[in-house]
Amino acid sequence: MSTYAAAKIVAAREIRVKLRDKTFIFSTVFFLIFAIGITVLPVLFSGGPSSVAVADQATAARLQQADLEVRVVADDAAAEKLLRDGDVDAAVISGPEVLAMDDTPGSVVDALSTAPPVRLLDPAAVDPFLAYIVPFALAFVFFFTSFLFGLQIAQSVTEEKQTRIVEILVASVPTRALLAGKVAALGLLAFVQVALIAIVTLIGARLAGLDRGVLHLLEPAIGWFVAFFLIGFVMLAALWAGVGALASRPEDLNGVSQPVQMAVMLPFFAVIFLGENELAMRILSYIPFSAPIAMPTRIFNGDAAGWEPFLALLIMAVTAVVLLAVGSRVYEGSLLRTNGKTSWATAWRSSTTS
Amino acid sequence: MLNVDSVSRSFGDRAVLKNVTFPVGSGKLTGFVGANGAGKTTTMRIILGVLAADTGQVTLNDKPLTREIRQRFGYMPEERGLYPKMTVHDQVVYLGRLHGLSSAAAEERTTKLLDQLGLGDRAGEKLEKLSLGNQQRAQVAAALVHDPEVLVLDEPFSGLDPIAVETMVDVLRDRAAAGVPVLFSSHQLELVERLCDDLVIIADGSIRAAGDKAALRAQHALPRYQLVVDTDAGWLRDEPGVTLLDLDGPRAIFDLDTGDDQKVLQAALERGPVRAFGPVVPSLTEIFREVVR
Known about the structure:
The complex is a heterodimer of chains A (354) and B (293). Chain A is mostly helical and 354 residues long. Chain A is 71% helix and 5% strand. In chain A, helix 2 runs parallel beside helix 8 (175-207) and helix 6 runs antiparallel to helix 8. Chain B folds into 2 domains: 2-211, Rossmann fold (3-Layer(aba) Sandwich); 221-292, Alpha-Beta Plaits, CATH 3.30.70. In chain B, helix 3 packs parallel to helix 5 (132-144). Chain B contains 10 helices and 14 strands. In chain B, 35% of the residues lie in helices and 29% in strands.
């Protein structure tokens, strides 16, 4: 049997097991709810136009022109009563005077006042809320998905080591097939999960009536994100498998996987905290570990030139090849060392495939 | 026939196997005995290709082992383990497929084998829900699912209850009868003695004895005799060439260093009736103690 055929059988088992795994199902559902929430909630929260009660006909006409929901009442007392009963957000009584419960109704005030014309010399490409939430969402999805699935690769390796089934496995198929099968299976599942989130987000954004201009920015950003995610995940996957093999019990896993955890966690915080700094983001978008978050963010903000994501992706792909080699060597070198934790150095040296 | 040929292996500067050579005959049950740390597991791992030999090789019918050949081996490691959260049926099928069976063949063999081992009605349960004895049976099924051409079992009897031991014995005999070379290690020397055809004794990484069980016995037989008479056998002490080892009234065990056993028998008959007289065949435990010393 070829390594490829063996890897396929290994991958099929991993996928079958994961599809029955509650953690996987919950995380998928959670992320989909998150994706729907983030696109639909802002629209819901803005709550449509304010409603206002007014007695004076002329004022009512002005307010209607400003797209407010106007309730024309008999007198000022009736307007105030409606406001107190919570039927309207504001009331305008003679004076004119604006009444509201606890918050100045900006839209009503604006409609009744004359504002000087404003001209922005450097308008922001996107709404500040979106500018904040989109990088955060990308970082969040990448961090959790990459972390969860990576950790599952490690756990699956440790499980095989702890239960000693690994000896039977290694006696029947090449270690490379085991590793490739696991990485392919978990990579595929992670990719499907992220792609699903991406699709739901885009559909949600359309349904929520997001501005066309924003969609125009969001679509390429998410498309690139999916591509970056895939390479980014594969890049770390073999390392996760390697640390899984270094531990011989699940209890050891947290300790030995620390370096890989850092490689996922630090870029997450870096992008969250340095998101405003254009130079920092430019650098982060080329560092393979942070590129999956930083580059799509820059694309979304309209800061990245057309060729930039290609270059970043290429750097990542090269890094992925190197790290796959490192990870598989560590994996092979430590897989059969079942007494206690194996150090990186020992695993590296003792990698003798038979 | 499986041949382990001049295999040596070191871990760091500790030589674990030194020029280990022994055959495992087709259709024979070969018992592999030795103290803890003598090198049994390392030898088995090298046979299975889980570990590489520093020098030497293992051959099957004079051909060096490749991964393709080894894929048709069945292996039961010393420390048992299958996936605790996978059903018995699913993991036996999975291992069958990894050993090169088609999906349909793996399904068919699994169902048949689990029925044979009395696990048919538990096949759909997760391994961790099974009793220890049944988990062992699942482990046997995992080693046999692909109808292996060579069977290597590390301590297959450890932790088995007496009924499970008999099931295991039947399984091994059955495989050997089908012409498969079967190598198994065990600490239970009585069991090895009863079960195996051939014997390999290892100590400190070197083979101390290997070959047919009866031949080994004959080879290690001492000129030792047992005599049972009606009266006290103390007179043996004064017989020429006799070293009395154990005397319990009318029963005596002695070594005959020089001289003729028939003369001793005659001397005994002259003194009265002889109830028993004959050479003492060494038990495996005794042979083991002797060669390992």
